[in-house]
Automatic annotation (TrEMBL):
Pfam families: LCM (PF04072). GO terms for molecular function: methyltransferase activity. This is Class I SAM-dependent methyltransferase. Gene3D superfamilies: Vaccinia Virus protein VP39. InterPro entries: Ppm1/Ppm2/Tcmp, SAM-dependent_MTases_sf, TcmP-like. It comes from Mycolicibacterium hodleri. One of its GO terms (biological process) is methylation.
Length: 273
């Protein structure tokens, strides 16, 4: 098999290899929480020192499943809607969802920095429904390309935590203003973890996690509906149950313990007015 050098990615862009390692490794398991053939192909096709990310776990596979479920639910009700994948990295959500048939009439906007988009072009198949935009998610010109006639579902999977608070909330506000009636989904890390990244978090002796300035609790994420203009409703999306401790952590009773709820990662779905 021909392999491609993954060291062309650095900084925050390289975190897409971290998430790929977790998702692809999980997809290879017979009892994996996600079925993702293209993630396996990418993992095997990119030459990279994945072990520097430490031992992979279920978290990235479970997160992808949660995003897939919400996106699929929206597309079932809005079959001609556009999907905007901000900072898509090496996510392979399009092909997972396409297997279910919900993307037959949709347009998918894949947005990330040029080096990431170049890897995607080399390794993933072309599809007429995919519009590739090599730019930062913070460059609002992508909004001019999106056809919002039949609805818009925006994903920011693994993005906002790497931005400053004003940039994250500003992006949400601008999406709400530009795409009324649409949806936006993102994930957040708790403040205790993002604060640790400011001091340096090592996944191994060879990999330091990039700084993550923006952290919030699940309830702070829900409060966006009352503080950001144009956001009508916010939903806390439950994490899918995984194996072992991940299954226990997803139990409803656990979230009723305040200290555990405040200090867990969260996934939030916003409805724009």
């Amino acid at each position: 098999m021909t392999t491609i050098d993954g060291t062309t990615l650095d900084g925050v862009s390289a975190t897409t290899l971290w998430t790929l390692h977790g998702r692809g490794t999980e997809a290879k398991r017979s009892d994996g929480v996600i079925r993702d053939p293209w993630a396996v192909t990418l993992l095997d096709s990119i030459d990279y020192d994945y072990l520097k990310f430490g031992r992979p776990n279920q978290s990235f596979g479970l997160r992808a499943c949660a995003f897939d479920s919400a996106t699929s639910h929206y597309l079932t009700a809005h079959p001609k809607a556009s999907v905007v994948a901000l900072a898509e990295g090496l996510q392979t959500s399009f092909w997972r969802l396409d297997r279910t048939g919900v993307l037959a009439e949709s347009t998918w906007y894949s947005i990330d920095l040029p080096p990431v988009m170049e890897l995607r072009k080399q390794l993933l198949p072309d599809d007429d429904r995919i519009v590739e935009l090599g730019q930062s998610a913070l460059d609002r010109s992508w909004m001019d390309r999106v056809d919002a006639t039949n609805g818009v579902f925006i994903t920011a999977e693994g993005l906002l935590m790497y931005l400053e608070s004003e940039d994250s909330l500003g992006l949400i506000a601008d999406c709400a203003a530009r795409f009324p009636g649409g949806r936006m989904m993102f994930d957040s890390l708790p403040r205790w973890f993002t604060a640790r990244t400011l001091k340096g978090v090592k996944l191994s002796e060879r990999y330091l996690v990039p700084v993550m300035p923006f952290g919030q609790s699940p309830d702070e994420a829900l409060a966006i509906a009352g503080t950001v203009d144009g956001v009508r409703v916010a939903h806390d999306v439950a994490w899918p149950p995984g194996r072992g401790l991940f299954k226990i952590a997803a139990a409803p009773g656990v979230d009723r313990v305040g200290v555990l709820r405040r200090n867990r990662p969260s996934i939030t779905l916003l409805e724009f007015g």
